[in-house]
Design brief:
mainly alpha, 0% strand
């Protein structure tokens, strides 16, 4: 039995270049990134500045969308109060329908403006990050799809 184990170990070792465990030089597709290493210097400050600019722009765009949505809800509430102050059914139905149509148009416009701003911000970020040395090793672009409402 010990001879069989030694034979298996020898076979396993030969798979890894004579070592019992893989080393960085024997691992396939080893680029050092799994260990936090990169080839050459990385301009982390450059990437950090691009990320900060992206996050500030996204924050501003989200504040704009939130304000537009709040306005849409307030306008709808006022319009519905006015609709139900009417004295005849036809006027109530007409005013209610108009209130909801205006609300839907406002919320759709707010969401479209958000998506446009968001996509432009991520595109600007990707272009800025490309200018940074070694950016692909530290960038967080892979997380763009988790950003609210993105399709990146």
């Amino acid at each position: 039995m010990p001879g069989a184990i030694a034979g298996v170990l020898t076979g396993v070792m030969s798979l890894f270049g004579g070592h019992a465990t893989p080393t960085p030089s024997t691992m396939p597709h080893d680029n050092g990134l799994h260990r936090g290493q990169v080839s050459g210097p990385v301009d982390i400050a450059c990437v950090g500045a691009a990320v900060a600019a992206r996050e500030n722009a996204l924050d501003s765009a989200m504040l704009t969308e939130t304000a537009a949505l709040n306005s849409a809800y307030s306008t709808r509430a006022s319009a519905l109060v006015a609709a139900f102050a009417q004295t005849d059914t036809a006027s109530v139905k007409s005013a209610t329908k108009a209130a909801w149509q205006a609300f839907n148009a406002s919320t759709q416009a707010a969401r479209k403006a958000w998506r446009t701003s968001q996509q432009a911000t991520w595109a600007t970020y990707r272009n800025a990050a490309k200018q940074c040395k070694g950016a692909t090793t530290v960038t967080d672009s892979a997380n763009a799809s988790t950003d609210a409402g993105t399709s990146n």
